[in-house]
Amino acid sequence: MTLLPYPVTKILLPYDGSPSAGNALKLAAQLSIAGQDAVTGLTLLQVIGGSYLARHVHNVDLRVNRMDQEKDWQRIRKRYMEKEVLPVLEEGKKILQSLGVQAPIEVRILEGKVSDEIIRLTQEEAFSTLIMGRRGLSPIKAMLLGSVTSSVLAQAQGVTVYIAPQEGPPKSGGGISPLLLPVDGSESSLAAVSQAAALAQAFRPLEPSLTLFHVIDIALMGMEIHEGGDSLVKEGEGILAASRRLLQEAGLEGCWKEKMVSGEPAQAIVQQAQEGGYPLIMMGSRGHSALAKFLLGSVTSSVVHTASGAAVAVVYS
Fold first, then answer.
1. C-beta separation of 46 from 81 below 8 A
2. CA-based radius of gyration for the chain
3. pTM for the model
4. Mean pLDDT of 92-120
Protein backbone atom coordinates (compact mmCIF):
# COMPACT_ATOMS: atom_id res chain seq x y z
CA MET A 1 0.00 0.00 0.00
CA THR A 2 1.25 3.46 -0.95
CA LEU A 3 0.18 6.26 1.38
CA LEU A 4 -0.61 9.19 -0.90
CA PRO A 5 -0.08 12.83 0.15
CA TYR A 6 -3.34 14.59 0.89
CA PRO A 7 -4.08 16.66 -2.23
CA VAL A 8 -5.74 19.58 -0.45
CA THR A 9 -2.98 21.60 1.20
CA LYS A 10 -3.83 25.26 0.65
CA ILE A 11 -7.39 26.36 -0.07
CA LEU A 12 -8.60 29.53 -1.77
CA LEU A 13 -12.31 30.21 -1.37
CA PRO A 14 -13.92 33.24 -3.05
CA TYR A 15 -16.70 34.17 -0.63
CA ASP A 16 -19.48 36.75 -0.85
CA GLY A 17 -21.91 35.48 1.80
CA SER A 18 -24.41 34.11 -0.72
CA PRO A 19 -26.08 30.69 -0.25
CA SER A 20 -24.00 29.42 -3.15
CA ALA A 21 -20.78 30.52 -1.47
CA GLY A 22 -22.09 29.02 1.78
CA ASN A 23 -22.22 25.59 0.14
CA ALA A 24 -18.62 26.06 -0.95
CA LEU A 25 -17.76 26.98 2.64
CA LYS A 26 -19.21 23.70 3.96
CA LEU A 27 -17.32 21.66 1.38
CA ALA A 28 -14.09 23.48 2.23
CA ALA A 29 -14.62 22.71 5.92
CA GLN A 30 -15.06 18.98 5.25
CA LEU A 31 -11.96 18.77 3.08
CA SER A 32 -9.92 20.80 5.56
CA ILE A 33 -10.96 18.73 8.57
CA ALA A 34 -10.18 15.46 6.78
CA GLY A 35 -6.73 16.70 5.82
CA GLN A 36 -5.81 17.68 9.38
CA ASP A 37 -2.21 18.97 9.52
CA ALA A 38 -1.73 18.56 5.77
CA VAL A 39 -3.92 21.62 5.23
CA THR A 40 -1.67 24.60 5.92
CA GLY A 41 -4.20 27.35 5.41
CA LEU A 42 -7.51 28.55 4.04
CA THR A 43 -8.03 31.97 2.50
CA LEU A 44 -11.43 33.63 2.20
CA LEU A 45 -11.29 36.06 -0.69
CA GLN A 46 -13.50 38.80 -2.02
CA VAL A 47 -12.53 40.66 -5.17
CA ILE A 48 -14.07 44.09 -5.61
CA GLY A 49 -14.91 44.66 -9.25
CA GLY A 50 -16.33 47.70 -10.96
CA SER A 51 -19.89 47.49 -9.62
CA TYR A 52 -19.23 49.48 -6.47
CA LEU A 53 -17.47 52.16 -8.52
CA ALA A 54 -20.59 52.53 -10.65
CA ARG A 55 -22.75 52.95 -7.54
CA HIS A 56 -20.60 55.70 -6.07
CA VAL A 57 -19.02 57.43 -9.04
CA HIS A 58 -21.47 60.35 -8.79
CA ASN A 59 -19.80 61.25 -5.49
CA VAL A 60 -16.33 61.55 -6.98
CA ASP A 61 -14.70 64.41 -8.86
CA LEU A 62 -13.88 62.75 -12.20
CA ARG A 63 -11.60 65.63 -13.19
CA VAL A 64 -8.79 64.18 -11.09
CA ASN A 65 -6.10 62.27 -12.95
CA ARG A 66 -5.81 59.41 -10.47
CA MET A 67 -8.95 58.04 -8.85
CA ASP A 68 -6.90 56.26 -6.20
CA GLN A 69 -5.44 59.60 -5.11
CA GLU A 70 -8.76 61.43 -4.83
CA LYS A 71 -9.67 61.87 -1.14
CA ASP A 72 -13.42 61.38 -1.57
CA TRP A 73 -12.80 58.22 -3.52
CA GLN A 74 -10.38 56.91 -0.90
CA ARG A 75 -12.97 57.58 1.79
CA ILE A 76 -15.74 55.78 -0.13
CA ARG A 77 -13.49 52.85 -0.88
CA LYS A 78 -12.37 52.49 2.74
CA ARG A 79 -15.92 52.70 4.07
CA TYR A 80 -17.13 50.13 1.54
CA MET A 81 -14.44 47.66 2.55
CA GLU A 82 -14.86 48.17 6.28
CA LYS A 83 -18.67 48.23 6.38
CA GLU A 84 -19.69 45.85 3.60
CA VAL A 85 -16.86 43.53 2.58
CA LEU A 86 -14.81 42.75 5.67
CA PRO A 87 -17.80 41.80 7.89
CA VAL A 88 -18.90 39.21 5.30
CA LEU A 89 -15.45 37.65 5.22
CA GLU A 90 -15.14 37.65 9.01
CA GLU A 91 -18.54 35.97 9.30
CA GLY A 92 -17.36 33.30 6.86
CA LYS A 93 -14.29 32.77 9.01
CA LYS A 94 -16.45 32.29 12.10
CA ILE A 95 -18.60 29.75 10.27
CA LEU A 96 -15.54 27.73 9.25
CA GLN A 97 -14.28 27.73 12.83
CA SER A 98 -17.70 26.69 14.14
CA LEU A 99 -17.64 23.77 11.68
CA GLY A 100 -14.39 22.56 13.23
CA VAL A 101 -11.71 23.89 10.87
CA GLN A 102 -8.38 23.98 12.69
CA ALA A 103 -6.20 25.25 9.84
CA PRO A 104 -5.22 28.94 9.91
CA ILE A 105 -7.84 31.10 8.18
CA GLU A 106 -7.10 34.48 6.63
CA VAL A 107 -9.30 36.96 4.81
CA ARG A 108 -8.20 38.90 1.74
CA ILE A 109 -9.69 41.77 -0.25
CA LEU A 110 -8.43 42.50 -3.75
CA GLU A 111 -9.54 44.87 -6.47
CA GLY A 112 -9.78 44.20 -10.19
CA LYS A 113 -11.47 41.82 -12.60
CA VAL A 114 -12.77 39.05 -10.39
CA SER A 115 -11.78 35.97 -12.40
CA ASP A 116 -8.35 37.36 -13.27
CA GLU A 117 -7.55 38.16 -9.65
CA ILE A 118 -8.65 34.70 -8.51
CA ILE A 119 -6.40 33.04 -11.10
CA ARG A 120 -3.48 35.36 -10.36
CA LEU A 121 -3.62 34.70 -6.63
CA THR A 122 -4.03 30.95 -7.16
CA GLN A 123 -0.88 30.81 -9.28
CA GLU A 124 1.30 33.32 -7.46
CA GLU A 125 0.69 31.83 -4.02
CA ALA A 126 0.58 28.16 -5.09
CA PHE A 127 -2.88 27.23 -3.86
CA SER A 128 -3.56 23.54 -4.35
CA THR A 129 -7.33 23.89 -4.26
CA LEU A 130 -9.88 26.46 -5.36
CA ILE A 131 -13.45 26.02 -4.09
CA MET A 132 -16.25 28.06 -5.62
CA GLY A 133 -20.02 28.22 -5.42
CA ARG A 134 -22.46 28.23 -8.32
CA ARG A 135 -23.78 31.65 -9.18
CA GLY A 136 -27.35 32.73 -9.88
CA LEU A 137 -29.19 31.09 -12.75
CA SER A 138 -29.66 32.80 -16.07
CA PRO A 139 -33.32 33.20 -17.07
CA ILE A 140 -32.31 32.28 -20.64
CA LYS A 141 -30.17 29.22 -19.90
CA ALA A 142 -31.25 27.75 -16.57
CA MET A 143 -28.09 25.66 -16.13
CA LEU A 144 -25.57 28.35 -17.08
CA LEU A 145 -22.80 28.93 -14.56
CA GLY A 146 -21.89 32.46 -13.62
CA SER A 147 -19.38 34.21 -15.84
CA VAL A 148 -16.76 34.33 -13.07
CA THR A 149 -16.83 30.58 -12.48
CA SER A 150 -16.75 29.82 -16.20
CA SER A 151 -13.83 32.18 -16.75
CA VAL A 152 -11.88 30.65 -13.86
CA LEU A 153 -12.44 27.14 -15.23
CA ALA A 154 -11.14 28.24 -18.62
CA GLN A 155 -7.94 29.77 -17.19
CA ALA A 156 -7.01 27.44 -14.30
CA GLN A 157 -3.69 25.59 -14.34
CA GLY A 158 -2.00 23.29 -11.86
CA VAL A 159 -4.86 23.39 -9.36
CA THR A 160 -7.98 21.42 -8.51
CA VAL A 161 -11.17 23.48 -8.84
CA TYR A 162 -14.18 22.36 -6.82
CA ILE A 163 -17.58 23.70 -7.85
CA ALA A 164 -19.91 23.24 -4.88
CA PRO A 165 -23.34 21.66 -5.39
CA GLN A 166 -26.54 23.65 -5.62
CA GLU A 167 -27.50 22.25 -2.21
CA GLY A 168 -25.11 21.90 0.72
CA PRO A 169 -23.03 18.70 0.96
CA PRO A 170 -24.51 15.93 3.13
CA LYS A 171 -22.98 15.21 6.52
CA SER A 172 -22.70 11.47 5.94
CA GLY A 173 -19.61 10.35 4.05
CA GLY A 174 -17.89 13.65 4.62
CA GLY A 175 -19.31 15.09 1.41
CA ILE A 176 -17.10 12.96 -0.86
CA SER A 177 -18.71 9.52 -0.78
CA PRO A 178 -19.87 7.88 -2.89
CA LEU A 179 -17.44 9.47 -5.34
CA LEU A 180 -17.95 9.20 -9.10
CA LEU A 181 -14.77 8.98 -11.18
CA PRO A 182 -15.36 9.32 -14.94
CA VAL A 183 -12.20 7.98 -16.62
CA ASP A 184 -10.94 8.12 -20.19
CA GLY A 185 -7.29 7.14 -19.79
CA SER A 186 -5.91 10.65 -20.30
CA GLU A 187 -3.21 12.12 -18.10
CA SER A 188 -5.61 14.46 -16.33
CA SER A 189 -8.10 11.62 -15.83
CA LEU A 190 -5.45 9.48 -14.12
CA ALA A 191 -4.43 12.49 -12.02
CA ALA A 192 -8.05 12.74 -10.88
CA VAL A 193 -8.06 9.06 -9.90
CA SER A 194 -4.88 9.59 -7.87
CA GLN A 195 -6.41 12.55 -6.05
CA ALA A 196 -9.58 10.59 -5.38
CA ALA A 197 -7.50 7.73 -3.97
CA ALA A 198 -5.73 10.15 -1.62
CA LEU A 199 -9.06 11.57 -0.46
CA ALA A 200 -10.41 8.08 0.10
CA GLN A 201 -7.40 7.21 2.25
CA ALA A 202 -8.04 10.28 4.41
CA PHE A 203 -11.76 9.48 4.67
CA ARG A 204 -11.11 5.75 5.24
CA PRO A 205 -12.70 5.73 8.73
CA LEU A 206 -15.98 6.75 7.04
CA GLU A 207 -15.79 3.78 4.62
CA PRO A 208 -15.67 5.78 1.39
CA SER A 209 -17.01 4.33 -1.85
CA LEU A 210 -15.71 5.13 -5.35
CA THR A 211 -17.02 4.26 -8.80
CA LEU A 212 -14.76 4.09 -11.84
CA PHE A 213 -17.04 5.07 -14.70
CA HIS A 214 -16.18 4.82 -18.38
CA VAL A 215 -18.50 5.93 -21.17
CA ILE A 216 -18.08 4.61 -24.69
CA ASP A 217 -19.10 7.53 -26.86
CA ILE A 218 -22.13 6.38 -28.81
CA ALA A 219 -21.04 8.53 -31.75
CA LEU A 220 -17.77 6.60 -31.99
CA MET A 221 -19.59 3.33 -31.56
CA GLY A 222 -21.79 4.24 -34.49
CA MET A 223 -18.71 4.78 -36.63
CA GLU A 224 -17.48 1.28 -35.77
CA ILE A 225 -20.80 -0.50 -35.95
CA HIS A 226 -19.48 -2.75 -38.71
CA GLU A 227 -16.90 -4.04 -36.21
CA GLY A 228 -19.45 -4.49 -33.44
CA GLY A 229 -17.73 -1.94 -31.22
CA ASP A 230 -15.35 -4.59 -29.84
CA SER A 231 -12.30 -2.34 -30.14
CA LEU A 232 -13.99 0.39 -28.10
CA VAL A 233 -14.98 -2.09 -25.40
CA LYS A 234 -11.42 -3.42 -25.29
CA GLU A 235 -10.06 0.12 -25.03
CA GLY A 236 -12.51 0.85 -22.21
CA GLU A 237 -11.41 -2.24 -20.33
CA GLY A 238 -7.81 -1.05 -20.59
CA ILE A 239 -8.76 2.40 -19.29
CA LEU A 240 -10.56 0.91 -16.30
CA ALA A 241 -7.59 -1.40 -15.63
CA ALA A 242 -5.13 1.51 -15.53
CA SER A 243 -7.36 3.40 -13.10
CA ARG A 244 -7.93 0.26 -11.04
CA ARG A 245 -4.19 -0.19 -10.53
CA LEU A 246 -3.93 3.24 -8.91
CA LEU A 247 -6.65 2.34 -6.41
CA GLN A 248 -5.05 -1.04 -5.70
CA GLU A 249 -1.67 0.60 -5.05
CA ALA A 250 -3.42 2.92 -2.59
CA GLY A 251 -4.71 -0.07 -0.64
CA LEU A 252 -8.36 0.62 -1.38
CA GLU A 253 -9.45 -2.93 -2.12
CA GLY A 254 -13.17 -3.30 -1.52
CA CYS A 255 -13.77 0.46 -1.70
CA TRP A 256 -14.62 0.76 -5.38
CA LYS A 257 -16.71 -0.66 -8.19
CA GLU A 258 -16.52 -0.27 -11.96
CA LYS A 259 -19.08 0.50 -14.62
CA MET A 260 -18.85 0.86 -18.40
CA VAL A 261 -21.76 2.13 -20.48
CA SER A 262 -22.36 3.57 -23.94
CA GLY A 263 -23.96 6.91 -24.59
CA GLU A 264 -23.24 10.60 -24.85
CA PRO A 265 -20.45 10.97 -22.24
CA ALA A 266 -21.54 14.12 -20.41
CA GLN A 267 -25.18 13.07 -20.26
CA ALA A 268 -24.26 9.59 -19.05
CA ILE A 269 -22.03 10.98 -16.29
CA VAL A 270 -24.67 13.42 -15.03
CA GLN A 271 -27.37 10.72 -15.15
CA GLN A 272 -25.17 8.30 -13.21
CA ALA A 273 -24.45 10.98 -10.61
CA GLN A 274 -28.14 11.75 -10.19
CA GLU A 275 -29.34 8.14 -10.04
CA GLY A 276 -26.55 7.05 -7.71
CA GLY A 277 -26.81 10.01 -5.34
CA TYR A 278 -23.15 10.94 -5.77
CA PRO A 279 -22.25 14.12 -3.84
CA LEU A 280 -18.94 14.49 -5.71
CA ILE A 281 -17.78 13.95 -9.29
CA MET A 282 -14.02 14.15 -9.79
CA MET A 283 -12.62 14.25 -13.29
CA GLY A 284 -9.74 15.51 -15.39
CA SER A 285 -9.86 18.86 -17.14
CA ARG A 286 -8.97 17.51 -20.57
CA GLY A 287 -9.63 14.33 -22.46
CA HIS A 288 -7.78 12.59 -25.27
CA SER A 289 -8.62 15.10 -28.00
CA ALA A 290 -5.49 16.79 -29.37
CA LEU A 291 -7.68 19.68 -30.51
CA ALA A 292 -8.70 20.34 -26.90
CA LYS A 293 -5.15 20.19 -25.54
CA PHE A 294 -5.24 23.77 -24.31
CA LEU A 295 -8.98 24.05 -23.76
CA LEU A 296 -11.33 22.83 -21.08
CA GLY A 297 -12.55 19.46 -22.33
CA SER A 298 -16.06 19.66 -23.73
CA VAL A 299 -17.26 16.70 -21.63
CA THR A 300 -15.85 18.15 -18.43
CA SER A 301 -17.31 21.57 -19.19
CA SER A 302 -20.75 20.10 -19.88
CA VAL A 303 -20.71 18.08 -16.64
CA VAL A 304 -19.71 21.13 -14.60
CA HIS A 305 -22.55 23.14 -16.10
CA THR A 306 -25.30 20.55 -15.71
CA ALA A 307 -24.53 18.44 -12.62
CA SER A 308 -25.90 21.03 -10.20
CA GLY A 309 -26.85 18.44 -7.58
CA ALA A 310 -23.27 17.31 -7.01
CA ALA A 311 -19.96 19.01 -6.35
CA VAL A 312 -17.67 18.72 -9.37
CA ALA A 313 -13.91 18.66 -8.87
CA VAL A 314 -11.86 19.42 -12.00
CA VAL A 315 -8.21 18.35 -11.77
CA TYR A 316 -5.76 20.43 -13.82
CA SER A 317 -2.64 18.25 -14.01
1. no
2. 21
3. 0.87
4. 94
